[in-house]
Amino acid sequence: MASSLVSKMASRAHLSNFSEVGRKIVGAALNYKSLAHDLKVPHPAKPIIFLKATSSYINVGQVIEVPKAETVNYEVELGVVIGKKCKRISEANALDYIGGYCLALDMTNVTQIGNAKKMSAPWDLGKTFDTACPVSKFIPKESIKNPDDVKLWLKLNGNVKQEESTSDMIFSTSQLISYVSQFMTLEPGDLLLTGSPSGVGPVRPNDVLECGLNDLVTMTFSVRAVES
Ligand SMILES: O=C(O)/C=C/C(=O)CC(=O)C(=O)O
Ligand SMILES: [Mg+2]
């Protein structure tokens, strides 16, 4: 069942179409030493986890929407696609549950997050909005030998803004999968966003974001304004 799902995933062009089973989006926040350093915040003692609605997915060819009166940041991330159901798994076994990968942007509305923080309220509207999760084509598991040693980069209008290896992550891919699975069952097709390295920043209407992962995939998205 799981292996046929994974081969279906691999044969399809884009992540948002792969999965008939899971495909919830689970994100880890502040998971890079470099970003924690930039933001002058301590390393989290445990992974900080959030959810994004599946209505956030977009594929290459679609456009990132930014509310006119709000600020939305780009965050380039390694996306891990779950290959088989996992519940309360150990770190030692966690990599066995990976079905593949993708390159992802965790678009983040920092105006909404700032408002939420002021009220000690949840971050949902900062993480979940239409177009908040641009994704690349599916990358087969075999193409990435070690998810904790993957190079990510992002250019904004041709200028490099983010460039880092996933080796800078605070919690490894195994630790994140195991940790999340203690609380919620991860299902085939679910996407785990592993966090963003330093250099995150705002996008503006007509900006172009280009990003890449090792020499495996690049993707480009443009930005347009929408009414707030
Ligand atoms: O504190 C904020 O305003 C936002 C934090 C994030 O978006 C954290 C991440 O998603 C990340 O580190 O990847
Ligand atoms: Mg993020």
What is the averaged pLDDT score? 92
Q: What is the CATH superfamily? A: Fumarylacetoacetase-like, C-terminal domain
The order of strands across the largest sheet is 2-1-13-6-7-10
- Largest sheet features: 6 strands, mixed
Envelope shape? globular
Q: Give the second-level CATH assignment, the architecture.
A: Alpha-Beta Complex
Number of helices: 6
Structure description:
The protein is of the alpha+beta class and 228 residues long. It has a single domain (16-226), classed as Alpha-Beta Complex (Fumarylacetoacetate hydrolase, domain 2), CATH 3.90.850. The protein has helices at 2-11, 15-18, 33-39, 110-118, 124-127, 173-181; strands at residues 25-29, 48-52, 57-58, 64-67, 72-74, 76-82, 98-105, 108-109, 133-134, 139-140, 151-156, 159-165, 191-193, 201-202, 208-213, 217-226. The strands form four sheets. A six-stranded mixed beta sheet has the order 2-1-13-6-7-10. The protein has a five-stranded mixed beta sheet with strand order 4-16-15-11-12, with no helix packed on it. A three-stranded antiparallel beta sheet has the order 8-5-14. The longest helix has 10 residues, at 2-11. The chain is globular. The termini are far apart. The model is unreliable at 1-17 (pLDDT under 50). Magnesium ion (MG) binds at residues 27, 29, 75, 77, 106, 193, 195-196.
Outline the secondary-structure elements.
Elements: H1 2-11, H2 15-18, E1 25-29, H3 33-39, E2 48-52, E3 57-58, E4 64-67, E5 72-74, E6 76-82, E7 98-105, E8 108-109, H4 110-118, H5 124-127, E9 133-134, E10 139-140, E11 151-156, E12 159-165, H6 173-181, E13 191-193, E14 201-202, E15 208-213, E16 217-226
Parallel strand pairs: 1-13, 3-9, 4-16
Antiparallel strand pairs: 1-2, 5-8, 5-14, 6-7, 6-13, 7-10, 11-12, 11-15, 15-16
The structure holds the ligand O=C(O)/C=C/C(=O)CC(=O)C(=O)O and magnesium ion.
GO cellular component, one term: mitochondrion
Family: Belongs to the FAH family.
EC number: 3.7.1.5, 4.1.1.112, 5.3.2.2
